């Protein structure tokens, strides 16, 4: 166990006999992720991996000065952890937002300078934005903080009178002010592109990014971004854009209302307490939603990010960004590239890399580029949708399972080529889909990758897993392969569990006695780990069928039928 105490109920996972060997030998296969705080809580990204686990893997498989590659680096946790542990790092991602977030996370920047520039920005735009949310009550004027809308009708206004939170009905003036804004009168840049049609993430091709915002918030955002773009110092300008994209979701109509029984603070309205939800994933605009004061969203995020940056400022780490691979052989220690991994890896010499650690796109779980459309378009980034490795349910894109396998297998092949012999490749993986697993196994069988270790990665109860977990798998697997000089080891075999049903029963009995049954994901974890380490694999759908026919389910746990 790394990081946090293991929750009760997981102890059965420790009973597995693990693969023996060096240095991959490890008596404990289950890693518990820590939550995303500090620099890792600065900006949303989906399927973020816990930094403590990433760090542990880097420490285990590399030494200071080694080159670590992550071809799908996402929000860049493998980059920061490599740099903090004095390794050199190459981070590749096709998503411009991913590389942007990564760079902002590691960037060394004077927080004093940031505070000065934030002060200038505040002086220039805060009052103007506040005037968009003016709330007049008698002779007094306040600034609205939250506006509740239901099916396009303004139903409630929150504002502060000194420190007291007031919740009030909207007046005619409030309604007039809100409706005085219009999409076609916004004077500055705002994204006008359409979505890809994809019901999985609630997008329709006739809708635009700007439909996610009320005209008032759109105008406030465009004014803010326009002013940020005038900041002369590039590092500060990018930092402020980072605060902008980190907060833009909360300034959208996607912020839902959480209803709880009980009285609200301040002057209450009814007995129902309304709390503020947050943008999670996809582009769902609820019928009842909040419109939150754009400046407040931005300032709150800025303060949180600044705090994390101040802590980082005290950390003594080296950051010397390279532009090409060769510079990593000298004093440069990080190379970040926004391009398709299948192309970038080709530019890296044979057997030049010490370790590859990555979490690739998992089939159809997250269409990252479609999900990041809001950020990329505010940032005016060009996006290469063609070469994304993904299965997208959008008919507007040609991203099916075959394209996904072809491109992903290409990357695996390149990883094998660039990795030094007897060095390691750790792959984080999670899928409930048989074909995706079988593709992975067949693809690895064609390469000189010997599976050395299978571990599970659990997320702590406190960590926000920014991901839609599959119905059964709450954990990710981390498979570690060693690049062997020759194919002197056996291929992984796809077996049928039907023919070995007793195996499932025995494994199950061995683990379930003390805890009165197992959840689906616990059974799958046991099986995947145990079988893979014996060099075998099975279809997950087969296990689920056997469970349904031979086991009974109660309180989410499976028990053997007697
Ligand atoms: C599972 S996510 C990685 C998340 C990361 N582990 C983190 O903690 O933030 C997979 C990443 O692969 C990227 N991706 C998809 N197709 C790609 C391609 N062809 N080349 C490089 N990156 C790609 C996506 O943009 C996404 O950021």
Mean pLDDT comes to 87
Which ligands are bound?
Answer: S-adenosylmethionine
Structural class: alpha/beta
Low-confidence stretches: 1-28, 461-471
Largest sheet: 8 strands, mixed
**Residue share in β-strands:** 15-25%
Give me the count of strands. 19
How large is the count of helical segments?
Answer: 16
Oligomer: single chain
What does the secondary structure layout of this molecule look like, with pairings?
Blueprint: E1 30-33, H1 51-61, E2 67-70, H2 77-84, E3 88-93, H3 96-106, H4 111-132, E4 134-137, E5 140-150, E6 153-161, E7 164-168, H5 172-179, H6 215-228, H7 234-248, E8 257-261, E9 272-276, E10 288-292, H8 294-313, E11 334-338, H9 341-344, E12 353-358, H10 368-371, H11 373-378, H12 401-418, E13 419-429, H13 434-445, E14 449-459, E15 476-483, E16 493-494, H14 501-512, H15 520-533, E17 536-537, H16 540-550, E18 551-554, E19 557-560
Parallel strand pairs: 1-14, 2-3, 2-12, 3-11, 12-13, 16-17
Antiparallel strand pairs: 4-5, 5-6, 5-10, 6-7, 8-9, 13-15, 14-15, 18-19
Helix pairs in contact: 1-2, 4-6, 4-8, 6-7, 7-8
The chain binds S-adenosylmethionine.
S-adenosylmethionine (SAM) is lined by residues 45, 47-49, 71-72, 74-75, 77, 92-95, 98, 340-342, 359-361, 368, 387-390.
Provide structural commentary.
The chain is an alpha/beta fold. Helix content is 34%, strand content 20%. It is built from 16 helices and 19 strands. The chain has an eight-stranded mixed β-sheet, sandwiched between helices. Strand 18 and strand 19 (557-560) form a beta hairpin. The protein is globular and about 85 Å long. The two termini are 35 Å apart. Bound molecules: S-adenosylmethionine. S-adenosylmethionine is lined by residues 45, 47-49, 71-72, 74-75, 77, 92-95, 98, 340-342, 359-361, 368, 387-390. Residues 45, 47-49, 71-72, 74-75, 77, 92-95, 98, 340-342, 359-361, 368, 387-390 line the site of S-adenosylmethionine.
